[in-house]
Amino acid sequence: MQEAPKKIPRNPSTPTTVPSRYRDRRLASLRRVIRKTGMAGLVKIAVDVELSGAENVEGLEGAFIVVANHSSHLDTALIYSALPDHLTTNLAAGAAADHFFLHWYTALAPVVLFNAYPIDRPGRPHKGNHKGLSSALLKAGVPLLIFPEGTRSRTGAMASFTPGVGRLCASAKVPCIPVALVGCSEAWPANNRLPRWPRRKVHVVVGRPLEPRPGEGTGAFTRRVERQVVDLHDAHAERFGMRSLAVLAARRARRGL
């Protein structure tokens, strides 16, 4: 039987109900089958994936926020394919409302594959008001995947994280899981229509869950999460002879991007 929407006590500007699709067991089972039989195979064709740090999230339950650097078309599928099943059953990926949710047919694939939900980007046209939906989902026990840079990097260098992640973790009292994606910008550059061939090695590196410390502001916590993603990325990149984020940032600066 399908669950009834869970009531969320929030202020008037925040949605008071969370659509049941985000926690529907049948839809979760369908997503799992599609990802295991189709999407995972396509990811393996495109890249050679290695997961590290899965032990850091063993036994993690309830709501949380997964954050990662974002430089490739591949990133979302890679995270869902690589992370342990118990993290991705109801994991809802934040997707730009102005790009994916203007029409039902552009929203279909993200919703079916990634349990996607709309995020309003400032200054972009979109349908409806989705303010507060991220917080409401967390309060309903739905974990989120968010790319705090706001958009894909065109150079592989990582932009500063927006402070929304820190505010969400603090207000909903949920942990943040930092994930570093290493090699994605080389395997499938943002400006390429297809991944490079022969396929490249990419790494999904999962860090330990982080929570705001007593007295730590949301901005400071966001910067700490950002620093952890950088450290995870660069330590792994150095180990495998790949480009660090500092090197990628310097290359971007030289090009005047």
Task: Give the SSE layout.
Blueprint lengths: L5 E2 L9 E2 L6 H22 E6 L12 E4 L6 H8 L2 H4 L3 E5 H4 L3 H11 L2 E3 L13 H7 L4 E3 L17 H9 L3 E7 L1 H4 L12 E7 L11 H22 L5 H11 L2
Parallel strand pairs: 3-9, 4-7, 4-8, 5-6, 5-7
Antiparallel strand pairs: 1-2, 8-9
How would you characterize this protein structure?
The chain has 257 residues and is α/β, with parallel strands linked by helices. The protein has helices at 25-46, 75-82, 85-88, 97-100, 104-114, 133-139, 164-172, 184-187, 218-239, 245-255; strands spanning 6-7, 17-18, 47-52, 65-68, 92-96, 117-119, 144-146, 176-182, 200-206. The strands form two sheets. It has a seven-stranded mixed β-sheet with strand order 3-9-8-4-7-5-6, with helices on both faces. A two-stranded antiparallel sheet has the order 1-2.
- The neighbouring-strand order within the major sheet is 3-9-8-4-7-5-6
Please mark out the parts with pLDDT under 50 across 5 or more consecutive residues, or reply none.
1-16
Q: Based on Cα principal axes, name the global outline.
A: globular
Mean pLDDT: 88
Instruction: Write the element-wise H/E pattern from the N-terminal end onward.
Output: EEHEEHHEHHEHEHEHEHH
Major sheet summary line: 7 strands, mixed
Strand tally is 9
Q: For the CA atoms, what is the radius of gyration?
A: 18 Å
Terminal CA distance reads 52 Å
Q: What fraction strand?
A: 15-25%
- The number of helical segments is 10
Helical percentage: 25-40%
Derived structural class: alpha/beta
Short description:
This protein is α/β, with parallel strands linked by helices. The protein has helices spanning 25-46, 75-82, 85-88, 97-100, 104-114, 133-139, 164-172, 184-187, 218-239, 245-255; strands at residues 6-7, 17-18, 47-52, 65-68, 92-96, 117-119, 144-146, 176-182, 200-206.
